[in-house]
Amino acid sequence: MAQISVNNQQFETGIEADHRGQIIKQGPDSGAVDAFGRQRVSEPFTLFDSVLRHSKNAELWNETISSGTSEHLPNESSVLMTVTASGHSILRRTRKRFPYQPGKGLNVLQSFAGSTPQAGLIQEVGLFDNNNGIMLRASGTTVQFVIRSSTTGSPVETVVNQSEWNIDTAPWLNLAKTNIFTTDLEWLGVGRVRCGFVLDGEYYYCHEFNHANELDVVYMTTAVLPLSYAINAVATVSGSMKQICSSVASEGGYEPAGAIYTTGRGASNFASITAETMVAAIRMSSGRTDNVILPSQVDVTIGGNPGSNVAAEWRMRLNPTVSGTWINAVNGRGNVQTMSSGTFSGGTVINAGLVSSRSAIEFHPQRALDLSLGTNAAGESDIVILTIQCSSAENATGLLGWREVL
To answer: Are 351 and 316 in contact (CB under 8 A)?
Structure first.
C-alpha cells in the first residue's frame, strides 16, 4: 500500500511491482491500452512489416547515401549504416506510406541499435518524412522525442529532451544497445501521441504529446507517413546505426473505404489480342505522391465462343517502362494519372490470373496494401499496369480499379 495526496487529502492505494521491483503502470499511460485509451483486446491489423533477413529489401526501402556506407548483415538480419566524416548522411525510408483511419490508433514498432550519443552525430528513428512525423532523435549528446509539422507551410519541430519527458525519463536507456522504439497515435488532427520503448516484453511509454483543447491547428498535416531510419554526421565524427525490424499496425482493424475508381480499355475497345498487351496503367500524380493508392480490382473479359478453348492470362506489372500519354483520372480528384493505350517493356509481375471468359476480382485489404503505390528515393511514383495475353488471337479488354486513401 502507498499514500497519494489529492487536493490536500491523503488516500491509500494499492501499488503493484514487477519482478524487477519496478512499478507496474496502469491506466492511460500503460501499454494495456491503445492510443485512444481502449483496452488492447483485439488483434492489430498489420499494415506493414519488414525483416531484413536476406537483403536490404530494396522493394520496400529507399536508400539515400551522401557518403558513408550501408552494408547488409545477413547473420544479424540488419542493415549497418556508418558515417565517418562531416557531411556524411544515410537515410533509409519506406517506399510506401501507411493509411490512417480516424478513430483507430496507429501503432509503430522499430528495432535498431544506435551509437552512443556524441557531439556532431544525429541519429533518428520514427514515422516521418521531410515535412511531418514523429521520431526518436539523438541530437549530439541529447536524446529527444520530436513531432515535425508543416501546418505553417514549412517544417517546424516540437522537441522534448529526455530530461523533460513527462511519463518516464528513462535513465535506463542505452542507445548503443539494441532497442525497440514505439509510438502510437490518435491523429484526428488534434489527438494524443505517445512515445517510448518496448523492454522485456512490456511497453514503457516515456512521453506523451497532448494536443486536444490546447492547439488552434492540427498538430501535424497528416498521419499518412513512411518509416525512416537516418544517421547524419555534422562534424568530423564516426558513428553507426543498425536498422533491424519494423512494423506498422492499425489497432481496431482496417477496412479500406471509398469508391473504387477504374481505368482501362473497357467495352469501347474490344480488340484482338495475342501478345501481352497493356490495357490499363496508373501512377500517382506529381505533387500528390504523399497519398496511399490501393490497386483494388481487376476486371478482364475475352470474347471466345463456348468450346473455343481460348484462355487468357492477365498480369499486373510494377514499374515497367511505358510509352503513351498520361491523363488525369476522370474522377477529378487530381491524385492519380491513367493510361489505357500505350506500349510497355519490363516490369515485375506482382499479380496474375487466368480467365476463359470473364473474371472480376476485388482484392482483400491486405493484398491491396501489398500492391499499393510507393515512390523511389527521388519521390517519383510507382507505375502499375494491367496486361492481357490470349492463347490465340481473341478479342479482349480489361479494367484496373483503385481506391484513394488520403
So the answer is: yes
Q: Which band of pLDDT confidence, cut at 50, 70 and 90, is reported for residue 19? A: very low
Cβ count within 10 A of residue 11:
9
What number is the average pLDDT over the span 342-354? 96
Whether the predicted pLDDT of 26 surpasses 70:
no
Instruction: Identify the structural domains of the chain with CATH numbers, from first to last.
Output: 28-251 (2.60.120.200), 261-405 (no CATH)
At 358, the pLDDT band (50, 70, 90 cuts) reads confident
| CA separation for the pair 284, 282 (Å, rounded) | 7
H or E stretch including 401? strand 394-405
Q: Around 184, how many Cα atoms within 13 Å sit in the side-chain half-sphere? A: 27
Q: What is the pLDDT of residues 268-304, one digit of tens each?
A: 888 899 999 999 999 999 999 999 999 999 999 998 6
Q: Are 264 and 280 in contact (CB under 8 A)?
A: yes
Strands of 59-98, DSSP E: 61-66, 69-73, 78-83, 89-94
Q: Please report the beta strands in 257-393, taking only residues with DSSP state E, as ranges in sequence order.
A: 261-264, 271-273, 277-284, 292-302, 312-318, 321-324, 327-328, 336-339, 342-345, 348-355, 358-362, 383-390
DSSP state of 317: E
